[in-house]
Amino acid sequence: MTDKVKGYSPTQVTLHWVVVVLVAFQFVAHDGIEDAWRSIVRGQSGADPDTTPLAYMHIAAGSLILVLALARIYLRFTRGTPPPPPNEPRLMHITAEAVHGSIYVLLLLLPISGLVAWLFVVEAAGDAHELMQNLLLLAIALHIGGALFQHFVRRSDVLLRMFRPEQAP
Predict the structure, then answer these.
(1) Number of Cβ atoms within 10 Å of the Cβ of 36
(2) d(CA 87, CA 136)
(3) Alpha carbon 146 to chain centroid distance?
(4) Do 59 and 33 contact (CB within 8 A), yes or no?
(5) What is the DSSP string of 31-85?
(6) Is residue 3 over pLDDT 60?
(7) How confident is the model at residue 1, as a pLDDT?
């Protein structure tokens, strides 16, 4: 990851917020996939027809998150990221990098584990998927908390970077 830019590009900001919306959808509308998964594990032929569309929307959204996370990682390595705020303690920078890294890893592993569980009926993958969703919630809470801390306590522009993309020269 390089610090060759002052802010995030419009594409990076857009991808960030699209993934935020998709992840929020996954947490809010997970009943359909849970119902379908319970039916599969029990060996039943079908899930509740009322929740089946939500199950397929969950799979589609998860697959899209995987693709968009790969695009975000690609941009992070090719375009770079803004430097940390001036005078940021080293421990805060390390923590921010660890939280970002955790989120990226989970955005890759969650869809993969979900697809493995769904397509191959691997209960261990389903269990891992459930554990990782809780870890993602924790990482997101730390990410939001860190951004709010930077904005309100340290008075840095970190939070605003995801609302005001860098304009091309």
Answers:
(1) 22
(2) 29
(3) 16
(4) yes
(5) HHHHHHHHHHHTT-S---TTTHHHHHHHHHHHHHHHHHHHHHHHHHHHT--PPPP
(6) no
(7) 45
